Amino acid sequence: MRVALVQLAADIDSAANREHISTQLAGLTADDALDLVVLPEASMHDFGAADHDLAAAAEPLDGPFVQLIAAEARRLGTTIVAGMFERTGDDLPFNTLVAVGPDGSLRTTYRKIHLYDSFGYKESDRLLPGEIEPVVIDVAGRPVGLMTCYDLRFPELARELVDAGAETLVVPAAWVAGDHKLDHWRTLLQARAIENTVHVVAAAQGGDRYTGHSLVADPWGSIVVEADSGSEILRADLAADDVARTRDVNPSLANRRLAPPRPAASRKSSLPS
């Protein structure tokens, strides 16, 4: 599976963000033969200050942001996963990942389960949590599980996705910078890869406020490619048999005793990739 990770710094001007995304994605073409392009959490519109009204900025799933992502997915002939704030019937929106297929159709959504009520911040004051329903989609014949930012700190979600068949975890994020935060980001991404013997594809916001350092880790937990803090596009090829080879040598999933595999309640896209 050939992937591209788009690292960018979003703003609270949604129209400007769309223009910036279009400019950055112009560096990709259909000739790149990409299977998956991943943009960060909140690519549509940044979180802004703690009192910034995200409900006013939120868009429906057929709004301008998803229309842009659909047009780019069709142009590139690829699946794109990107983060937005989704309008609801409630006063508060969802923090949502949209997955748009190569034909421009919305294949699935994942609404962030674990809201960032940590490090002195309270995301739940501004957003609704999604249902506890792991989401796995098929991309180029590979099962891909979706997580968002703070979800990374909860290994049980990654394990539910893997029990539902995921062999790659995709983690869009806006990982706030600060003491220890870059170490946490790298360590947790590598840990999720190692303990689940999966690829991890993490696209993060960069700039001054966020940690950046989008990266891809292989099923051994080794970092294949990593960005710095600025706007950048990373590319990586994820070999189909990496997961099987790693699990043959390190069958830790099969050796579990405290929490044996069980059917997970997951939502899967039935549409072709």
Defining key terms:
alpha/beta, Nitrilase/N-carbamoyl-D-aminoacid amidohydrolase, six-stranded mixed β-sheet, 6 helices, 13 strands, 23% helix, 25% strand, globular
User: Mind telling me the CATH class?
Assistant: Alpha Beta
**What is the number of strand segments?**
13
Largest sheet: 7 strands, mixed
How far apart the termini lie comes to 12 Å
At the fourth CATH level, what is the homologous superfamily?
Answer: Carbon-nitrogen hydrolase
Q: Biggest sheet, strands in spatial order? A: 11-10-9-8-7-6-13
Element-by-element helix/strand order: EHEHHEEEEEHEHEEEEHE
Shape: globular
CATH architecture title:
4-Layer Sandwich
GO molecular function, one term: hydrolase activity
Protein name: Carbon-nitrogen hydrolase family protein
InterPro entries: C-N_Hydrolase, C-N_Hydrolase_sf, UPF0012_CS
Keywords: Hydrolase
Describe this structure in words.
The chain contains 6 helices and 13 strands. The strands form 2 sheets. A 7-stranded mixed β-sheet has the order 11-10-9-8-7-6-13, with helices on one face. The protein has a 6-stranded mixed β-sheet with strand order 5-4-3-2-1-12. The protein is α/β, with parallel strands linked by helices and 273 residues long. It is globular, with a radius of gyration of 17 Å. The termini are close together. 23% of the residues lie in helices and 25% in strands. Helix 1 (14-25) runs parallel beside helix 3. The model has no long low-confidence stretch (mean pLDDT 95). Residues 250-273 are annotated as: Disordered.
